[in-house]
Specification:
two-stranded parallel sheet, alpha/beta, five-stranded parallel beta sheet, globular, about 230 residues, TIM Barrel
Length: about 230
């Protein structure tokens, strides 16, 4: 009985370390922005009109963000990717096809990161140094492989559920509560948002764009940092 309990506890700890965006058990990741700062991050693009509209909103506020892009979309949406880079935003590696890396072999993980890296660098001509695992799922090998490729793992501490069908008000509510929660702990917020979708191009992210516009209007520009 004691062995079974110990096994269940160990399994629970391992699961938490693999899926929690702030856990450091499997290795160091960046999950918090500097104290009281706000870092906007966007996953699953580039995504045609949605990404370009978002770039306009960020430009109006003179705020820089970080875009974690999928390799296969980067090859199809090279002009949009170039627009992200030309606007001065950071670009990170979000794998080539957005698999759950927890279940991927070492060779598949290396291939996913390498192919995304090549896609971005071929289009922008600049090296990529940031990495975000799809869904935040990882294991120790995942982070070691990323670091071996010169990539710093970036997670988040504010999740907004904007990949689902939702409203701008709901997305903004998650953002605001997350910022306040981290402020109470004297931590900055890394906000997980999406300008695209992992399954297909053309995902509607109008609710995200509207929520970001409101966020930028209500917080001082100096509060925002790029990773």
């Amino acid at each position: 009985m004691l062995l079974r309990i110990a096994s269940l506890i160990a399994s629970g700890i391992a699961s938490y370390a693999s899926v929690s965006s702030t856990s450091q058990l499997w290795g160091s990741t960046l999950a918090h922005a500097p104290s009281r700062k706000i870092a906007l991050t966007f996953d699953d693009g580039p995504n045609s009109d949605n990404t370009l509209r978002l770039l306009d909103v960020l430009a109006e506020a003179q705020v820089s963000a970080t875009f974690f892009v999928i390799g296969r979309w980067s090859r199809e949406q090279g002009d949009v990717l170039r627009s992200i880079a030309s606007a001065g935003h950071r670009i990170g590696n979000h794998t080539d096809t957005h698999p759950n890396l927890f279940w991927c072999s070492r060779s598949r993980t290396k291939q996913e990161l390498t192919r995304c890296q090549s896609a971005v660098e071929d289009v922008t001509g600049s090296a990529v140094t940031l990495f975000r695992p799809p869904f935040g799922f990882r294991r120790p090998d995942t982070l070691r492989i990323a670091r071996d490729q010169g990539l710093t793992p970036i997670l988040w501490n504010v999740k907004c559920f904007d990949w689902k069908k939702t409203t701008a008000e709901s997305v903004y509510g998650h953002v605001q509560r997350g910022i306040l929660r981290n402020q109470r702990r004297d931590r900055g917020a890394i906000i997980l948002l999406h300008d695209g979708g992992d399954r297909a191009l053309g995902a509607d992210r109008s609710h995200t764009i509207a929520a970001v516009r409101r966020l930028l209007a209500e917080y001082e520009r100096e509060r925002f940092v790029a990773l």
